[in-house]
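User: For a benchmark we're assembling, each entry needs the component sequences followed by a predicted structure for the full assembly. Here are entry 17's components. Please fill in the structure.
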Amino acid sequence: MQTDAVRVVLLAGGYGGAKMAHGFWLLGRPVELTVVGNTADDLELHGLHISPDLDTVMYTLAGVANPESGWGVRDETWSAAAMLERYGAETWFGLGDRDLATHVRRTELLAAGLRLTEVTGELSRALGVSTRLLPVTDDRVRTQVRLADGWYGFQDYFVRRHHADDVLELRFEGIADARPTAEVLEAIGSAQLIVIAPSNPFVSIGPLLAVAGVTEAMRASAAQLVAISPIVAGAALRGPAEQMLRNLGHEPSAAGVARLYAERYPGLLDVFVLDRADEGLAPAVAAAGLSPRLGSSVMKVEGDRARLAAEVLELAGLPAW
Amino acid sequence: MQTDAVRVVLLAGGYGGAKMAHGFWLLGRPVELTVVGNTADDLELHGLHISPDLDTVMYTLAGVANPESGWGVRDETWSAAAMLERYGAETWFGLGDRDLATHVRRTELLAAGLRLTEVTGELSRALGVSTRLLPVTDDRVRTQVRLADGWYGFQDYFVRRHHADDVLELRFEGIADARPTAEVLEAIGSAQLIVIAPSNPFVSIGPLLAVAGVTEAMRASAAQLVAISPIVAGAALRGPAEQMLRNLGHEPSAAGVARLYAERYPGLLDVFVLDRADEGLAPAVAAAGLSPRLGSSVMKVEGDRARLAAEVLELAGLPAW
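Assistant: Structure for entry 17:
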């Protein structure tokens, strides 16, 4: 590690978090990036432990992500899934052959007694990922959502039911007993900049910040805390964030997200980055007590990712270039 | 079931057993075939329960076996194996993507509390196999072989070391506590014909007959008992049977196999089928106390399989045609 590397911690879900992490990686400026990933959308399927958010970040940083779907591996084959279907197994959660190998290996290493943190490190290193990727906790936390007809596991709602339903309530099963890992606390404690990725505030960032000790460590850190809006011009970059905001009584806008963060975590965040398209919402963000800054949070091509990362460093007084 | 169906039980390993089973299936004459399969070469790899012999029989009967390799599934892809290799997992045991799905599903169903017998039935039915395929036992039995430098698991010797070593001794871990299933005992008890497939007498047939109660049930059965030589003209149809016979002090010939069966299981078998190429060994088989019959035990094409099955039925006075 070069002594002038900026120590950045990125709190990340899957899609938006992965792109943001990739942006930091693409920068020329030395950044010692630690991604703290969400595990509350993990699931067990066919006896395998699947960590969709961690995998999306890992595959993206390894350069093997499927660029079309936003999940899974590129150049994927689907032979095992076809066979599992013949066997009458559940196939609503798409498992490509390469992706399946990840889950088989993860499950094998967990069964051998490794912590999820260690397993994630081993898988990432094997794929050539130099960025440190940490699950926020090694403990089991599972997001559940209440829909009109009852409680569902997150992936059941998100994948099987295509996140079409209104979410009336959220809970994180296991959260009371979950603790952040020592690695996560250390990374937060020594960070110069902590970034909340443009991820879903309820189901990606929410469970991360709900693990007892995480927000405390963030408050105790000397790092600047910057959140990036996952909503641009009233629409989610991807996924159900906009609908969830509405369902749960918030304004479906960048300002709504800013207010949500400000109300739930008073005084935690310093800066809130809005897309330039939402410039008119800056006063509302300021009224919520966060310092509004304009950035380019829509990441359509790889150059956008690096640009946003550079903007975030710039805003934090740690210019990339 | 038609009332005139011949009730046949086939004791089978992988390759030769699968071909023999397929032969019975190919016959026009109604045969109610039950294959009792070897599980002592099962292994756990990547946390998955793999049953190579059962799978070879199942894939063969389902018409999805790889005809070149003699194991695995045809039209296979290898994406997961490539990924597992990147992850540094053990890759000496070839796991194609479709095959991997079988092991994932088996492991899932076993973890859900099903017996291996039930799992095997469910997988087979899903692949359209009408023949009943039964593991000899639901209990854990594992063949181990002593090589020059110590004891090895069977697949470690067979696949990883390409069965090149001399086998000095054999043992079946867990055999003392293993019991045949009720389904196996019932099938043996009601069989009209019990056939020992042209499989390795030590590691395919040996562990089947070593499960306490199997030979007793065979003796109590009214069925004719016919064994088919896995050695033709001094060479194994496939695999290390010839070398094992030599290593373990037996003549590497059909007569050597006949004597081995006659000595280990006195009075158990009625008929021993030699290939026509071994006609000269018939007196030696007779001297061992088995009734020698000539057949065509080399099964190169599918027609050979049906022909051998028909010959075996014919020998037993239950003509196929």
